[in-house]
Amino acid sequence: MATLIEVRDVSCAKDNEHTIFSKLDFDVNEGDVVVLQGKSGSGKTTLLKCIAHLNVYNGRILYRGRTAKSFGVPSFRTKVFYVPQKPSLLSGTPRDFLATVSSFNSRKVPRSVSDGSGLTYPIEVAKAWGIDEELWDRNWSNLSGGESQRIALATAVGLNTAEVLLLDEPTSALDPQSTVLVERFISNELRSPESELKAILWITHSEEQGRRVGSRLLRISNSGCEEEARLLDP
Ligand SMILES: Nc1ncnc2c1ncn2[C@@H]1O[C@H](COP(=O)(O)OP(=O)(O)OP(=O)(O)O)[C@@H](O)[C@H]1O
């Protein structure tokens, strides 16, 4: 299986005196769903932001053997797509966000035949998760936490540009039924030959969710990360 992400001796600090984590070393390979767990404040979100090139760090992070800069950062971020826990902090509307992210994509891979632009599939995905199309034209700040989470996820999955999704507690604002719908959809995308998606890093505090979705478990602490035994229920 191809190696998609290489994290080598990565460390990150809050300031000159306080390290968040250090000496992180791991790979993410094609087919992996790597569940990230660790105490609150251990640096899980920070790590995803480092991988997405949204945070400064020391060490080396490569995607398909290349740095984000050598790839071109906007294009890189459509391939290694970070989905924040609280997309409601974004400005404008989800439809604006969809248009912006889509414009960064160097290679369009539309899933929907309806308009060929690739912009309708995210809306179809969100609809399957109970999101009416009119919500795409509301400001993020006027959507509920669960609505904005589903829309941000549907954008990340539905644009079908990302090979690696970086999911930051993606279902933390969802009810149990919506959570299961979203988990199944994303797992199916990972297996679909039509999908670009090849690996996921998934932060969750839920051991149950970790077992449902994960193929690997990494525990983060300020002294590094440890891999635990395979997660998936048999
Ligand atoms: N921009 C920042 N400036 C200074 N400190 C920061 C910044 N962002 C995060 N931190 C600090 O870095 C540490 C790690 O934060 P992070 O959000 O990555 O943890 P986490 O493991 O995702 O936590 P949680 O499980 O609570 O979401 C925390 O102590 C946090 O206060």
UniProtKB/TrEMBL annotation:
Name of the protein: ABC transporter domain-containing protein
- Check the record and name the PANTHER family matching this protein: ABC TRANSPORT PROTEIN ATP-BINDING COMPONENT-RELATED, ABC TRANSPORTER DOMAIN-CONTAINING PROTEIN
Q: Which InterPro entries match?
A: AAA+_ATPase, ABC_transporter-like_ATP-bd, ABC_transporter-like_CS, ABC_transpr_CbiO/EcfA_su, P-loop_NTPase
Q: Does the keyword Nucleotide-binding apply?
A: yes
Q: Tell me what organism the protein belongs to.
A: Paxillus rubicundulus Ve08.2h10
SMART domains assigned to the protein according to its UniProt record, in alphabetical order: AAA
**GO MF terms on file?**
ATP binding; ATP hydrolysis activity
Please list the residue ranges annotated as the ABC transporter domain.
5-232
